[in-house]
Structure formats: structure tokens, C-alpha cells
Amino acid sequence: MNQKEKAFKIIETLENNGYEAFIIGGAIRDELLGLIPKDYDITTNAKPDEVKQVFSNFRIIDTGLKHGTVSIIFDDDFFEITTYRKDGIYEDCRRPKEIFYTESIIEDLSRRDFTCNAIAWNGREFIDPYGGIEDLKLGILQTVGDPNDRFREDALRMLRAVRIALEKNMFLHHNTRNSIIRNKNLLHQISRERIREEFNKIIFSNYGIKNLISLSLIDVIFPEIKEMFNVDQNNPYHIYDVGNHTIRSMNFYEGDDLSIKLALLFHDIGKIDTRTTDEDGIDHFYKHSLYSEIYAEKFLKKYKYDNQTIENVLILIRCHDIELFDVPSKKQIKKMLNLIGFENFEKLLIVKECDIKAQYSKYLNRLDNIKIIRNMMEEIKNENEAFSIKDLAINGDDLISFGLKEGKQIGMILNNVLELVIEDKLKNSKIDIMNYIHNLLDNA
Questions:
Q1: Under DSSP, is residue 111 helix (H, G, I), strand (E, B) or coil?
Q2: Among 113, 141, 252, 286, fewest CB within 10 Å belongs to which?
Q3: Nearest in space to 376 (alpha carbons), one of 415, 345, 344
């Protein structure tokens, strides 16, 4: 059985034991849009203890008992089963203070966020009291009931509305849209980690940032981003202001690496502070990458990104404006590989590529160098050519056995050897390197 068939088997089992049960939420929305759901959540009038009794032969996890949810493992698939409920008072713009079980699926649907998520389906009939199916046909995303009430209950729903509309190619109903703008400051009450997770998803949709700006949500999240659209670039390489150039560069990236997407978002934000105009009317943005790095670090630490992501994003921003060699050579590439590592250099090339594509198309020939560099990197990788100390034919232990003491001298010698190997002035073989060190010490 596939996941959908298992969901209906769960429903059938609950019905055979005298209960109601329906698939609920995003799974139905995606089914109706012709998409494949990631998971199937189920709602029922059976209480959690009754669900456990019905599925006593399954592995059961108490994933959210205080919210009426238990989960069962069906073969290798995970299903959440939640009892029909009504929500009590929301005190923190995130979760109800208490919940109440109900016997009514209609009452349960009334607490849902958007009409397209307030549809229940048991395989025979749809329960759709708020017109979610019609809204899906029309491509409209709107809240269940008064949007002000829904967003005051859970302010994160404002970001979810943006994300769902972008992901499902829907547009916001004008009442929902106006309510988001009116209630934007409620986001201050949401944890930064939750905002971060929604933001990460939004920036992977084309023009996600522009939607956050048009809805004024960026004013709460990081208003500096909006300022990029006020900075023109009177420069031969650019025909867009900084903001629109940034959006274009992000849209050219079709992968799923978060550090690349974030680096593209922030790579030119430092131009806000660095614009100068020469006597010919040409704009320059000297050292803007340093300022961009400062802005990016402020954002990443504010929203508590992990240290590795922060490090990778800052490296990409720091290096994005480096000219990648008029005539690329392996020596130059190895020095960059030594500086930032193979993986980050691969990412840097992608950032450079998207950056160039988002500039004036007259200069797209600069992409040719990136192709050459990628080919040379493959040769370096396939031939195991040295570009870092760990790639050398010797290591610190070899030098200690040679009679040197542990300490700075070993590091200095290894770095000196690596530089000579990269410059092709010394062969990367243990015999050649040890002979070189022997002569070096004899002449010291």
C-alpha cells in the first residue's frame, strides 16, 4: 500500500470501530491541486485513548497529547491522528491556552487557518463548509472567517499565507492581504526560530522577498532589505537598482542550498552605504562586500542560524566580488581552494554565475571563465592535486620524526611547502619534500 491507501485504511479501521475519521489539511489541498502530498494527517471524533486502543497493534507515539494528537507508525509511514477540537483563548499569538474536544467535524474545521486547509475527506465525501474547494479552483487563498481573528490567534499564519500562496501559485484575497498589512507587528510576538523557518521557505519562491515587502512584513523581519530598492546603479555592468538585481540573482538560482540563497539575498546589501559617483557620473561601491557581510551577520545571528550556515554565507559574500582571473590557471584556483575550500568555491562559482546573469546581458561573456574554472577544478579533484596542507605527501608527524619539535615551526614549514607545491616549484612527493626540508634546515 502507498501512503494514501494507508491513510484510508486508518480511516476505515476507525469507522469499523464506530468513529468518524477524515483526511484533513494540506494533503487534501495538494490532492485537489494535482500535487503529491508529503503526508496525510487524519482527524477523528475518537479521543486519544480510544485511538490508542483501536491501533494497539501499531507502534504509537504520543506526539501531542495536550493538543489531542497521537501518531501511529504504519509500516514505515508516520500518521498524525488528532481528535476534533475547539480552541480556547489565544494568549501569545501562537497557541491556544487550552483546547476542548468536540463531536463536530464542522466545529473542528472552523478553527483552521485558510479555507483550502479547512476541507475534510473520507474517500466518499468532502466536508467543505468554508468554500475551500472553490477557492482552490479560483486560485484564492483566504482565511477561515475574519482574517484579523485568525492572525491575532497565530501571527505566524501571516508568513504561512505568503509561503502557501507562492508555493501553490495562488493569490491572496484582498481581505486577507489587507489584514496582514494591518497586523504585521504581531510578528514581534513570534519566536525568531519560527520566523526563520518560514522565511527560509519563502526565499526559495520567485519574488518571495517582493511579497514580504509589498505586505510590509519585511518592515518587521529586516527592513534593511527594502532599502536596496532605493539604490540605483549607474554603472556599465548594471541596468537594475540593487534590490531588483538582487531578486533577479536569487531567481537565477534553481538549487536548494540555503547558504547560496542567503548569500545571493545579502551579497549587495552593503551598497546601501557605499555608493559614490565619479566625475563621469559612474557609480562605484567600493568595499561593499564588507558592509554586506556585516548586514548578513546581523540578520543571521538575529534569527539564530546555525554556526556552519553563518560561516558559509559570510564566506560567499566576502568573496563574491573577487575577480575570477582574466586567464584562469590552476595555480590561482588552488590558492582559492586553499582559502575557502572546495565546497565553498563550488558555491562561490554559482553565486558569481547568478550575479553575472542578473547584470547587463552585454557582459554575459564573463560566464565563459566560470566554465573554464569548473573544468580545471574537476581536473584538480580527479588528479588529487594538492591545494591544502592535508593534501601534501607529508604531515606534521613526518616532520617530528625528522627531528623537529611540535609547534609553530612545523606549521610554518608545511605552509611554505604547500605554497611551493601550488606554484609547481616543488613536487608533491615525500622524498622531494623531505629533501627540500633537509636543505632548508641545513641552510638555516
A1: coil
A2: 286
A3: 345
Name the phi and psi angles at 8, rounded to 5.
Answer: -70, -30
Q: Which of 270, 265, 136, 258 is nearest to 207 (CA)?
A: 265
| Sequence letter at residue 80 | E
Q: What does each of the 444 residues of the chain score in pLDDT, given as a tens digit?
A: 899 999 999 999 999 999 999 999 999 999 999 999 999 999 999 999 999 999 999 899 887 777 889 999 998 889 999 999 987 666 666 666 677 899 999 999 999 999 999 999 999 999 999 999 999 999 999 999 999 999 999 999 999 999 999 999 999 999 999 999 999 999 999 999 999 999 999 999 988 999 999 999 999 999 999 999 999 998 888 889 999 999 999 999 999 999 999 999 999 999 999 999 998 889 899 999 999 999 999 999 999 999 999 999 999 999 998 877 667 788 889 989 999 999 999 999 999 999 999 998 887 888 888 999 999 999 998 888 889 989 888 888 877 776 766 667 788 888 888 999 998 899 988 888 888 888 877 665
Distance CA 246, CA 233 (A): 12
For 365-391, b/e burial (b = at least 16 CB within 10 A) is ebeebbeebeebbeebeeeebbbebeb
The helix (H) or strand (E) run that includes residue 316 is helix 307-319
Domains and CATH numbers, the chain: 3-138 (3.30.460.10), 222-382 (1.10.3210), 389-442 (1.10.246)
Q: Nearest CA to 165 among 122, 214, 119?
A: 214
Whole-angstrom CA distances from 127 to 22, 115, 119 are: 9, 12, 6
pTM summary value = 0.90
What is the residue type of 108?
Answer: D
| Grid coordinates given for 18 | 464506530
Instruction: Identify the DSSP state of 122.
Output: -
Q: How many Å apart are CA 221 and CA 299, to the nearest integer?
A: 9
DSSP string, 229-291: GG----BTTBSS-HHHHHHHHHHH--S--HHHHHHHHHTTTTHHHH-EE-TTS-EE-TTHHHH
Residue with cell 554575459: 364
**Residues in contact with 174: Cβ distance below 8 Å, sequence separation at least 6, in sequence order:** none
Q: Write down the residue that cell numbers 467543505 correspond to.
A: 128
Q: What φ, ψ does residue 170 adopt, rounded to 5°?
A: -115, 165
